[in-house]
Amino acid sequence: MVDTDRITGAAKELGGKVQGAVGDLTGSQRDSVEGRARQAAGQAENLYGQAKDTVRDIGGKIRDTVGGLVGSDDVEHRARRAQGAAEEHFDRAQRSVYRAADEAADYAEDAYERGGHVLRRGTREVSHQVAEYPLASLLIAGAVGFGLGLLVSATRD
Predict the structure, then answer these.
(1) Do residues 98 and 49 lie in contact, with contact meaning Cβ atoms separated by under 8 Å?
(2) DSSP for 60-74?
(3) Of 33, 76, 146, 157, which residue is most buried, by most CB within 10 angstroms?
């Protein structure tokens, strides 16, 4: 049986990819960064679900093996030790996945903040250039508008 964390993780990952792609297409850095963060969180949750499935499978195999050898104290002791080791590996994997998700969120937050700073700096620079060269700015804006108009009318034909 597939763990629900794998399903929800895969859904979040797909949603993050879509949001990131839409952000890239529209030029929205916020959507792009949020999408990448959601995608990373979905990947982490999916990995966590996979780890849970793996531990569950190992535990089932141990139970099956012990069930076939019922009565031997040594086998039962070994099975308990193996199950304890599997649970320990699961706990370590869980901590690693959570740590990776936290780091991904920190990177996404840092990228979002840096993107905001770059956007504000770019806005100030463009405003300065427009104030210093208003006629050239008007001509450039008109040329861009004319080019966009040609592109829009060409796609309708």
Answers:
(1) no
(2) HHHHHHHHHTTT-HH
(3) 33
